[in-house]
Amino acid sequence: MNDTVDKLVIFLAKRDGIDKLVKTFQYVSKLVNWHEETAHPAAAHRAKQWEVAAGLSRKAFRSGRFLTGFNALRRNPGETPTFRFLSVLANAGEMVYFFFDHFLWLARIGVLDAKLARKMSFISAFGEAFGYIFFIIMDFIIIRRGVIQERKGYASIEKSTDMEESFKKIKADRVMRLMAVAANVADLIIALADIEPNPFCNHAVTLGISGLVSAWAGWYRNWPS
After folding, report:
1. What global pTM score does this model have?
2. At a CB cut-off of 8 Å and minimum separation 6, what does 21 contact?
3. What's the pLDDT tens digit per position in 160-195?
4. 95 with 130: CB under 8 angstroms?
5. Contacts (Cβ under 8 Å, ≥6 apart) of 221
6. How far apart are CA 185 and CA 177, in angstroms?
7. Is the dihedral of CA 182, 36, 30, 8 positive or negative?
8. CA quadruple 196, 202, 207, 209: dihedral sign
């Protein structure tokens, strides 16, 4: 399967695939709104509407997503006590994020009291940030293990085809995990803008670039090979 259109169809058939596409729309429109706000207010307003619509659409697509973390803990909590502990913390944070995101979505579209939106946003963002910290730690631990394994292999006198294949797998896994770290750090910045608003995290450029880094890292990780 080498055809780009075939790969795009498969990518967009996944929930994560369509989420990354709409996330790209959301944060491109945020940057357009910021850039055009003074010179072209009408264009900025249209971009803002696109941003809000994309954000609400993504929340709808994520319905039930909190079950992913629950299932990960149920099926594969980790191979060591340390990893199981980190996995529980990471997935628990992500479950809180996605669960309360349902209520944030309902408050934003008017089904629930709009006054609940700020509280739900804080709880959801706190869970998101908490979970991402531990996902980042887990990825760095696995990356470090791969580097150590590579060094031992290169130090070995005997080289084999199996060893070369193992090195390729380690390098491919490292790239994927670095992409995951980039996405998680970017999303952590966005979450901090909700938890503790500040001039840096809440600036449109910071949010826009962070959102696009996260989206495009997700494109890379989910794109069919």
Report:
1. 0.91
2. 12
3. 677 778 888 999 999 999 999 999 999 999 999 999
4. no
5. 176, 179, 180, 183
6. 12
7. negative
8. negative
